Amino acid sequence: MIRVEGNTGPAYFREETLREGTVIQSIGFDNVNRRLYYAQVIQGGRKLPGESAPVAGDVRDLRGDLAITEWTLGADAADGSGTGSVTGYMYLRGFGHGVSFGVEPSGSSTYLWTEVDAVQDIDDMTSRGKRLCRFKFASSATPLDATNASLQKFTPVPGSSNNTASVDPLNNRLVVRYDAGGMRYRVYDLPKARAGDFSTPLVEVAEPAIPVDVNRYGKPSFQGYAVAGSYLYMLRGNAYGKKQDHDDNTATPDIVISPPGEGNTFLASVDLNTGQLVKSFHSKAGYTLPFREPEGLAIQIPKMADPGVYRLCMGFASGVQSGQRKASVYYKDSLIQP
Q1: Cβ distance 183 to 221 under 8 Å?
Q2: Which terminus in the chain has less CB density within 10 A, N or C?
Q3: How far apart are alpha carbons 29 and 101 in whole angstroms?
Q4: 46-78: pLDDT as tens digits
Q5: Could you tell me how many helices (H) and strands (E) the chain has, helices first?
Q6: pLDDT band, very low/low/confident/very high, at 38 (cuts 50, 70, 90)
Q7: pTM of the predicted model, to two decimals?
Q8: What's the chain's Rg over C-alpha atoms?
Q9: Where is the P68 RBP/TagC-like beta-propeller domain (predicted)?
Q10: What single-letter DSSP state applies at residue 169?
């Protein structure tokens, strides 16, 4: 497993410009074809083909309209940092918020597993996917709608909500996070899931709480997950300067739960064999970013010839100005034996 301890980690990419100026929501690697994908809510003021007028950003979020940016990886430097460039993008309408998505290589192509059929949350002005879908990434300015007949749609857990996906590239498995009276995870054989067979999950565990000093860090928001082998990794945290009511007392002022230069980013590992929390720690990776919000977790295998050596990569939204956000990725690669 990855050693999830120590406050900092090396930067793989820092302050890169993507298709949209919104914060990233999640990341995912095609380790075979050396591609990195980012999910974002479509930025406000953009008018897509077939739309009569530009659409505001909060409306995009409520509708579940996402942008996927494809970043083709170049050579890695000796210090582990990477090079690359934007090589494509897609727009998805009516899908969800993009907290996590799965990446499945297939020959020279890449297929994405995402939430779909967005259910609107008017109170929070956002949306979450009711089901999952699978589609081939194909760069285009023409949006892919949730109603498109070409989409493969799945309902892994009938009656559930808030469905998202991730792919374990070590064991070729699909991971589903869903709400069924509480957040839970199921792990499936990927070829069976692709064929629509969700009858026999390999693992099912409840999402455990993590220990946090609420007087100092509040209740960090869930920001992503990834699975490698027998371990589930979870990411929590908020943007610098985030305020939160920490004690449910309206007479007590809200506190800053993510202080600049420190933040409230937490990484945690869970043993999928037992469902028990193994380790949780506060991370200061990327602490010098002027704006820093943890967004997305993914497994990268730098060399497919040596799949046992992998990285746990954390996405961070950065960039000083709202509407001109950048993307940064930091990682941990120190392995310990379970």
Answers
A1: no
A2: C
A3: 10
A4: 999 999 999 999 999 999 999 999 999 999 988
A5: 3, 23
A6: very high
A7: 0.95
A8: 19
A9: 82-330
A10: T
